[in-house]
Each structure stands twice: as C-alpha cells, then as structure tokens.
C-alpha cells in the first residue's frame, strides 16, 4: 500500500480486514494558550514576544497581545509551540496565512517562528516539569536574553532559562 501526502497514524489488521486511521497534517493545538515569563528576565520586559520578522525577544507582559501568546500542541505526536499571532507580507511572506510554530534553526542557532508544515526543522516544546523551552531531538534550549532583550540559545542545553506561564484567553491574531 502507498499513502501519498497522508500521515498514517495506525493500522489495525486482522486476517481479513484492516482499519486505517488518517490524521490530517498540521499542528493540533492543545486547550491552553499561554504567555511565557522568563524568571530573571529583563525587568518590566520578561515575557516572550514574536516580532514581525518572526524572531523572539523579551517584551512587556501584555497578556492580551496575540504576539505574546503561544499554545502548546502536537504535530503527529511531536510536541510543538503554536504561535498565536499572524505575520504580514512585508516582513515574513512565508508565514502569511500559515500556522506558525516555534522552531530551532540549526544553521543559525536560533529559535524563531516558522511554518508548522515544514519538515526540515526541529520544533520547540515547553517542558512543564522543569520550566524550560527546548528543541525536540536536540540539546538546544532558550537560555535567556542579551543586552538588547533578544533571546539567546544554548546549543549544549547546559544553561537553560526558566519560565513561568500564565494561561490566557486567546486573542485573535
């Protein structure tokens, strides 16, 4: 059997029949939209936000702003962080009308907004147990911020920033 363009979740087979469950591609959002606040972050600008070009920086904790909101979810069983905001053509043509997730770009050693449907990136997750933002399948973690409030990444995973989260009502992007 060949399944083109579809994700095969499972096959239950008996001697005469088989049942195939098909899952559509793309991110499935979880029930809670969150705002991430860095413990020890930039005073009065501790919360993560996504700029027009998709980079992550620290900004004021405006809980009702879509650019501060992220929803944990899954793509075919992999944990992801779905970004609530939308992106404009003048800044990120590749994200216009797309669902954006936080991803780790290994060539640039950055976490930033990327199309959730891309297959060539490592997506990022939030580890609730230890309050860290980590790349799936890699040691990289969000490690804090620099002197101009841009987030920094530790590719070794030794110096990870800690975050608290606040559940919020999602703001329309």
From TrEMBL:
Record-given protein name: Uncharacterized protein
Keyword Signal found: yes
Signal peptide segment: 1-18
Highest taxon above the source species: Eukaryota
Keywords noted in UniProt: Signal
Protein source organism: Podospora australis
